[in-house]
Amino acid sequence: MKLQILGCYAATPRTMTNPTSQVLEVKNHMFLIDCGEGTQVQLRKHKMKFSRINHIFISHLHGDHFFGLPGLVSTFRLLGRDKELHIYGPKGIKEAITLLLKLGDSWTNYQLYFHELTSKEPEVIFENDKVTVETIRLSHRVYTNGFLFKEKLGERKLNAEAVEKYKIDKAYFQNIKNGRDVALDDGTIISNSELSFDSPAPKSYAYCSDTGYKPDIEDQIKNATALYHESTFLESEAHLAVKTKHSTAKQAAAIAKAANVGILILGHYSTRYKSIELFKEEALEIFPNVELADDGKFFEF
């Protein structure tokens, strides 16, 4: 999995920081997660191909998470896009985007599909033969979802030495990758475990922003390869986190520890603090593997 952070700061854009948006690449699929102001500029800055984005996931309808979406939808049109685009987000997102298109008489020349979300329980909202995406119910001032991206178990890997040893024809290779045994001409059955190796363990990425401290998500994101969790405040402003339904770095670390995730990536920082390193220092008191998101930062896991 490859994660490109386009923006990861709370509230308003500044000259050197951008509101929330990131791109996740899984099994050659590129997903855009949230779309704050300036997202398309950041996409250009980091040389990411607009044409590869076919699915956009919006966590909630606060401006710092979707005000960049109307511009991006319009730019796709101006670039002559002909592939369909799917947008997943809370009920109301279709009305917000289509009203602007209507008022500007700028309907898209490609198919635009809105998948409006209302469920109060986790649900699978995207699935193909390689990836599933399910919602994570979060706790914020408006209806908000996180997203859990999960790879599906891939094909088994051929054991070249064993295949050569038994002189197995190439016609059986796909069956072996699919987990089947092979019968030799003399009737001998060669077990698949001898002819192939286990495929790599599927990876998963949990995106949780914005939300107050919500321990009941821990079971759903258990053992995730990576967790992006908002950390708007430090513990010294925990009272503001409660008031605004955001989280502190320590609370994010507590979720990561309880869920036994591989990596915790902090983000959605309030700009009141002099350094984002303070968030990492606080989280490390509870969880050992902490990374800091920052605009333009790239992760591979």
Q: What level of helicity do the residues show?
A: 10-25%
In DSSP terms (H or I, runs of 4 or more residues), the helix count works out at 10
SSE string, helix = H, strand = E?
EEEHEHHEHEEEEEHHEEHEEEHHEHEE
The low-pLDDT segments are: none
Quaternary status: single chain
Distance between the termini: 5 Å
Structural class: alpha/beta
The amount of beta strand, in percent, is: 25-35%
**Strand line-up across the major sheet:** 6-5-4-3-2-1-18
Indicate the mean pLDDT. 96
Shape: globular
Alpha carbon gyration radius? 22 Å
Question: How many strands appear in the DSSP assignment?
Answer: 18
Report the sheet with the most strands, covering strand number, pairing sense and barrel closure.
7 strands, mixed
List keywords for this structure.
301 residues, alpha/beta, globular, seven-stranded mixed sheet, 10 helices, single chain, 18 strands
Care to describe what's here?
With 301 residues, this protein is an alpha/beta fold. 24% of the residues lie in helices and 28% in strands. It has 10 helices and 18 strands. The strands form 4 sheets. Strands 6-5-4-3-2-1-18 form a 7-stranded mixed β-sheet. Strand 3, helix 1 and strand 4 form a beta-alpha-beta unit. The longest helix has 11 residues. The mean pLDDT is 96.
